[in-house]
Write a structure and sequence with these properties.
By secondary structure, the protein is mainly alpha-helical. It has a single domain, classed as Mitochondrial carrier domain (Mitochondrial carrier fold, Alpha/alpha barrel), CATH 1.50.40. It has 9 helices and no strands.
Length: 253
């Protein structure tokens, strides 16, 4: 129905959003922890990592949510269109203008509540990542007599923390995607969204989405796409975190 291009819908917003998100996130994460220490708010190691992760995540979620909405709308546009209907894919600009014209700027913040609920993800991921790194560092001292971690050790720590956090908090990803996918009923398909399946009642908010999914699909509905999500995100997080750690070491030199 869509050809090879169908596999790459929403790529442009992703290519913009991912580097923007992480280039903001890491400095904010380190900066938040530094502010806590300078302000005299001494927290135990794990709690400091949780506080830094949640603070940075909240700011980055607010700043980048519009791009996630664009990506979701582009990926799901005309999902229910009949074959041969003649409805063509939207460009990024067409989708962006359609959302703004037909639904208003608030539509760009659909799913933000679910994203903020997903701060539990980074609250788990980053303390685990720091813990895994420290364990790897202790092993490196015992085996190699050095503190510097090898790339494979950083990648293992990043992927392990991500896998655990994603599995525990994945429902927020489903909720965010469902809320971002649906268009305002009056706006229709012109905004670049898909709407919903036949007979589906639009979600009125986060709690209504939870109730509908659990009632219609059960708990399994909250974990749809988890395996594909792990296949997509684990290599990405390994590259992102390893690149950041290497830059932290190399740039001062």
């Amino acid at each position: 129905r869509e050809g090879m291009r169908g596999w790459f819908r929403g790529l442009v917003p992703s290519l913009v959003n991912v580097p923007v998100f992480w280039s903001l996130y890491f400095p904010m994460y380190d900066g938040a922890k530094e502010l806590l220490r300078e302000g005299g708010y001494a927290l135990p190691g794990p709690m400091e990592h949780v506080a830094g992760a949640v603070a940075a995540g909240a700011v980055c979620d607010v700043l980048t949510n519009p791009l996630w909405v664009l990506r979701t709308r582009l990926q799901t546009h005309n999902m229910y269109a009949a074959p041969g209907s003649g409805v063509r894919p939207l460009s990024v600009l067409e989708c962006a203008r359609g959302i703004l014209r037909n639904e208003g700027w608030r539509a760009y913040y659909k799913g933000l509540g679910a994203s903020l609920l997903g701060l539990s993800h980074v609250a788990i991921q980053f303390p685990l990542y720091e813990n895994f790194k420290e364990r790897a560092r202790r092993r490196a001292r015992d085996r190699r007599g050095e503190d510097e971690l090898q790339m494979v050790e950083i990648m293992a720590a990043a992927m392990g923390a991500k896998a655990i956090a994603s599995t525990l908090t994945y429902p927020h990803e489903v909720l965010r995607a469902r809320l971002q996918y649906q268009v305002t009923p009056a706006a229709g398909a012109a905004s670049g969204g898909g709407g919903g399946g036949a007979g589906a009642r639009p979600y009125t908010g986060l709690l209504d989405a939870v109730r509908q999914i659990l009632r219609q699909e059960g708990v399994a509905g909250m974990y749809r796409g988890l395996s594909l999500n792990l296949v997509r995100t684990l290599p990405a997080v390994a590259v992102t975190f390893t690149s950041y750690e290497q830059l932290v070491v190399w740039l001062p030199k």
